[in-house]
Design goal:
275 residues; mainly alpha; 56% helix
Length: 275
Amino acid sequence: MQTPAQTQPAPAAPGRGEAGRGGAAQGGAAQTAGPRPAPKVPPEFDALPIWKMEAAKLVALLKDPNSTLFQKAIACKKLSISGGREAVPPMAALLSHPQLACYARFGMEPNPDPSVDDAFRAALPKLKGRLQVGVIHSIGFRKDAKALDALTKLMSDSNPEVAGAAAASVGMIGGLQAAKALQSGLKTVKPPVFPVVARACLLCAEGLMPANRARALELYTDLSATGMPGPVRLAALRVLNAAGPAPPGARKWPAPTGAAADADTSGFLGRGRQN
């Protein structure tokens, strides 16, 4: 009988049969060998030499018609760190490229030069579909208020992806003009764009609160209506109830009533958390 200290021999690897056991018996060379060396990166897919280039050489790489898609993609990524004004035109020329547009936007968005905003606005009416959506997002990321008129028109675009992206970017840009556009959009747009407009309006109201409290509370009041998306309405009600009495001349808003409001202990309605 086998004692607990005894062990059974390990079974051979599946599919190897006697040959597998025979190979193991011939020696432990395969088991004691060191780790395999890392495979070499093919020269055409080696990003390191491109990453070490200065901005001027990266720009030249983008302009060179013989450069590969891989080389241009890595050049755009590096130019997001080192690029200046001279890097904007060659990347802007890629905004209509089906494979490289996203890399171009990645390289342009952090660039502080104002010509980036000019390039995005110029490309906006020339693009369609996903490429246009990408530029819309970049404009919102950079908070370019000069693009608000164009974005407001796109909020009613027949493509819901374009319309939703435009509404979201208007909310990101913020300000009084954006608030007016979004407040108007709440009355005109249809699903699936309507919830996006409501969320964008909520973001815009949050941005207005420090500088224009009365206008922000007006937006929150509209967003507290029963026809608004549930999360947006609850967020608006929380702000309104935490804000206290309405300032003179401002629109009034009804405080939530009923057993559910009276029993709330979370602090979500602005009444303070009860321990």
